[in-house]
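Quick start: what a row looks like.
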Amino acid sequence: MTWTNPLTLLRHGWTRHWNPDRPVRTVVSNLPFEDLKKREQPNRRYEGNAIRTNKYRLWSFIPMNLFEQFHRMANIYFVGLAILNFVPVVNAFQPEVALIPICIILALTAVKDGWEDFRRYQTDQQLNNTPCFIFSRYEMSYLIKRWKDVRVGDFVRVLSNEIIPADILLLHTSDPNGVCHMETANLDGETSLKQRKVVPGFSSLGEPFQPQTFDSTVVCENPNNNLNLFKGYVERPDKRRTGFGIDSLLLRGCMVRNTDDAAGIVVYAGHETKSMLNNSGPRYKRSKIERKMNTDVLFCVVLLFFMCLIGALGHAIWLETFSSMPSYIVPDSNGNYTPSVLAGFYMFFTMIILLQVMIPVSLYVSIELVKMGQIFFITQDVELYDEELDRRVQCRALNITEDLGQIQYVFSDKTGTLTENKMVFRRCSVMGTEYCHEENAARLAVISGANEEEEVTIYQQTKLPPLFPLEELQDVHTGDKNHANTQVTAASRRRSKVAAEAQSDMETVVVPDRKLILEVDRQMASIQTGPYLDFFLALAICNTVLVSSVTAQRQRVRVNVADLAGAERVGDVLRALTHSTKTYSVQQICQKVISSERKVKSGLSGSEEVCYEAHSPDEAALIHAAKAYGFTMMERTPHYVTVKLPDEALLKFEVLDILTFDSTRRRMSIIVRHPHTKEIIMYTKGADSAIMERLGNVFSDCCSKIKCVEQWCGWKAVCFSLKVISEQEFRAWSAVRQEALSAIEEKEERLMETANFIESSFTLLGATGIEDRLQESVPETIQALRRAGMQVWVLTGDKPETAINIAYSCKLLEHEDLVFTFSTNRKVLQCQLTNASVPEQSLICVSQPVSSGKLGCIGLVIDGPTLSMAMSDELVEQFVELCKHCRAVLCCRVTPLQKSAVVKLIRQKLRVMTLAVGDGANDVNMIQAADVGIGVSGQEGMQAVMASDFAITRFKHLQRLLLVHGHWCYSRLANMVIYFFYKNVAYVNLLFWYQFFCGFSATAMIDYWLMIFFNLFFTSAPPIMFGIMEKEVSDSTLLSLPELYKRGQHSEGYRRSTFWIAILDAFYQSLVCFFIPYWTYNGSDIGIFAFGTPMNTVSLFTIILHLAIEIKSWTAVHWVIMIGSVLVYFIVTLAYSAICISCNPPSDPYWIMHKQMADPMFYLVCILTTVVALLPR
């Protein structure tokens, strides 16, 4: 084995991840180079598929962990003092004893870090050894290997319900249409299936995939963490290029569904896959209390400095009072005495060692334990549990629980956060004629009046045979009992999932309007074409909805990426077949498994009824509306979409291109060839503003007729349009489009240009009105947050009419409010930027209400373009000043970037604590910009949840999370931190006062071991218990009186004055605890430890009872810990004084405690001193 220079390895690892000369990644097949060594293969510079998320190795654990712990200044401080104690001229007590406290703290932290890292190592090993299918050129078949054996350039095959081992470019599927369905729940939490399609030209119907014939080169972008973007092209030997995007990439960690098998070439592996690049671990933020606490630690350092300075000066002055050195001052080895000034200098460092406990070494560890306990109780709160979704609140940021009690501004999304995001079709307008759907409205009114808890339809579940009978092999290994438990658990989860995902009749059933259905029937019977038919065809096909059979639903296995339960089937197959060989040919195994699945599916396919899996609720509402009028989408493939008409005829449209929806264009288009007329037609749907601005002039009359859309307040308007494209125009545009698809640089910009070019001169067909119902208890929640002193803003991308209607419904705006609506067009934008007339007039208008005390009467509504103007450098100060005077602010038509910009602006300009809550991917920027981010796990996936600090299922849960748990966490932690400072200062001052009576010689009247035990064991548990379980006010009181929340907003629990009052209280109590025993035993002949034992005991009683006074709600746990701490003190002290015969010569604590407890004076001193010390409280 040859030795390699570590610098060479480091340089190689750096160039592997970053090479400016390689802006793109080039991947070729590994099969022609299978017999070469790894260093000679063309894909050698790319990462392997083995992952390693643990930080330490066995040999590097101790140095690396210590290095990380020493990033905390308190640890460096105490280690430095322990080392200083080894210097003979400044040591205060036995050097080994000084190491004990910091060693215990470092050891406990190291054990915690090591255990967490070991669990990560076990997960990595389980993941890396998962079986998978890799093609071999020698065997000419797929062999079973491990995930860690996968490399970039390998051909991998994935079966149905199997987890994808790496990022794979899809080249073949068993589906005749070249389609593969993928479930990304393990990656982004979204349960809807994603459709992936084979790269064009690499899937031949009826022919098996032959990886050995692949001679093309894959060129793609370098690894990145964008789950929604992937660009590249496949270059054939003849230099022809075929572009591909994210719709051809199978992502690691996802699961193949509804597809027998899929195969492709690996482009990213291991830590370069998109899933691993998105795995950033728990979020870390510094809370507001922690920032204040660090400042107070510096104050304690300053206080310690002055106390040590007093000790140094006192010792020097005390030595100067002697005309000759007394006998108890020992000279050095040469018989010389240390000069008083130098002795005072040495004493300064000795005093630092003696009084080091002034800085609370265990405070940081105690805070971590307290926050873990607080998070446990938050997640276990049954009031925050959603029974319908079977989810509880999630705490993803582990160290900002107390910030929940200090929020001043709340920024909320609308759709899916304040509303259900369960869209209901209400009405439509076709060619200028509005159809109100009165019968459907009456049906919805009846359903809304019924019990909402019965709204979800519970249907009978039929037990289907498993798609993979080989799964039964697992029962042999797990046993019948475990299998039965697993079935019970799976059944309960399945019932919860069914209740959460089943769509109610309100969303899926639409009663057709009589006038509209007559018009549709008239056109169907006469001309077989027309705007009404085009309108409903647009509803049916202009979407991304997937079609599947109701009777052949996919079996969804709840699998976690870390658990890899989906890979167990392959492992069971291996164990059942053989244990002797390392690799196997699995061609027959795959065929057997696939054939069994097909057999099950064929046996189930007996109904023509279809069900839809929509990526968004509005698409589901629209396609069900089309189905209600007889336009039923029956099948969707990458190349065709089939629609059944009301007369049962089938129209099979050839799909030429799809322009997907994005937040910039705010529309989606599908280009198809009509099966009868052979015309190329583009159907487009989108927001009203995105469609209206691109209509042809000839249809201005129709545009004026559809003004009724603006009157659909509270409903989401989706407009539909049509454009007929000539063959020549489409061919020219398609050529440019293909070039853009094959591009690597500026691909998104070029695709946007091509979409904007073709999406013009529309013919407006009509519009639909979709209602999004308000969530339960949203108005009450907003009112409670306002009573608690929080300003509530709503930031939404909807049009102002819809947003304003929802704002009134949820009580964000009241009808008595004075509402300013700011909206500007582009022609006057420059004028407003120059003169700033609107903000100035607004400030004049609001000045009177503010002075008259009517602050809660001002509301502001502003749209996206005006918001951009208001946030410009010229107007931003006036805009912020205006917002300060508004009770509610509603921002409409805003982009995701504008949402985050608004949050950052208010947080930085007003220096307030902000909270952002949202449910969709467009809210991620806003959530991450706020001090506290809340994700709502609703209908739009889990991207907001994954980016958040806390996750809830309903907006109403925000009330209890903030007003109850936020208040509790803040008050608990604030009081605990203040108590820690008080406790340490009060105890250290006992030693400081004694210095005035021992010549400032840094002598301690308390045994060193008992001093260490005092902070580590005797008084450590009560404050931790206090920080976890204290409830100064009950939850019912906090919910009924939200005004109590203002205590945290104003930092009343932890102010600078509170800190100094606690320090003064500590000084007072230390004076009492020292001088009452001193005056009692003054003039007696007791030893130094006999003198210090009553002080130590009195100090314990005072500190414990001080905390008892602070506790407002006593439980059995409080009594056990408080009494237990006192009992532990006496037991340990008695045992220590009984066995410590010569622990600290010349004065030893042997039998001291026993003698003191036999003296009645000891009890009188303890009682009297404790009462006097706590009398002011």
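That is the whole record. Residues 957-994 form the longest helix (38 residues). The chain has a mean pLDDT of 80.
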